[in-house]
Amino acid sequence: MAIVSSGSASAGAAAPREPRRRLVDPAAQAGEEPSRATEAADTPIQREDSLRPRRLADYIGQSELKQVLGIAVEATRAREEALDHVLLYGPPGLGKTTMALVLAEELGVRCRITSAPALERPRDIVGLLVNLEPRELLFIDEIHRLNRVAEEILYPAMEDFRLDLTVGKGTTARTRSLPVAPFTLVGATTRAGSLSSPLRDRFGLIQRLEFYGLEDLQAIVLRAAGLLQIELDSAAALEVARRCRGTPRIANRLLRRVRDVAAVGGHGCVGAELVHEALSLHRVDARGLDASDRRLLHLLQHGYGGGPVGLDTLAAGLGEDPATLEAVVEPFLLQQGLLQRTPRGRVITEAGLAHLQAHHNSTAA
Ligand code: ADE
What we know:
Number of strands: 10
Structural class: alpha/beta
Bound molecules: adenine
Helix content: 40-55%
Shape: globular
Order of helices and strands: EHHHHHEHEHEHEEEHEHHHHHHHEEH
Strand content: 5-15%
Strand order of the largest sheet: 1-3-4-7-2-8
């Protein structure tokens, strides 16, 4: 399987914030053949690749998703067909891209990766579709941002593996049909509700990714620590798990920060105390909230008497984009019961107030 990354916007969507480094290929470390995925050109998704599970059996958590997709993959392989189109939705960092790559690996095909903002002109999506080989995966991140023209090109491609192209202009314009290889579209979105219903209806499998539980996150941290050759005890892994907002991508980021502090301090095996110290330095609190989460709760409480307050007002007060606030910041606060969405606006909960107070006490101490 190989990754073909297309377009700068796709790079932006998955780009890590830290500078690129050489890859640590988990397969190479385990003495296996290196994955072609991690051999691919210098794509910006490489850093995350080093820790991504490659097979369903290595993918920790999301048991319902794994079960549903595992059955679909097995049946598809037996029929020697392309897998049905898959829509994955849920908050960022929960493994949508990873799952697309795992599916490609399980099916023994290539995965081409792009993002809707990179498909601005009709020829962008047409170029991708005509170059697909039978049964390949086309992964489109942020699929809710696809423009109307690109969506309409996709419909016959998804349904009948056909492209309907308009050739010429005005009265001489004609429609030409071109065959497309049977392929699987894997769409990913943080905002399933923003997808047009004709597009949503063309996916055979629609699956939500959930926040991970503590036990799964602890296992993910221990696996990543092994791959990064960090000595870390299980209490330390649990401490990282508690502070990563239910999100493996954040867990792995925090783990790297812990590794830095451990290296600078000349520590050997990392314990829970060091995790606490390292993550407090990065203002990640005991429940995993960062400074922007606390700013939201603080503004809600002290600027608007605890709410209710509308999303746009809250976003303006924080200098944030309302869509980002809704899709990226709020889901974890809602899931933790620190914030509530009501018909009249956002409200801080008793638990939210208690958390602000506890954080204030711990930093004042
Ligand atoms: N790394 C990031 N997400 C993971 C997952 N779900 N399972 C194993 N390792 C991971």
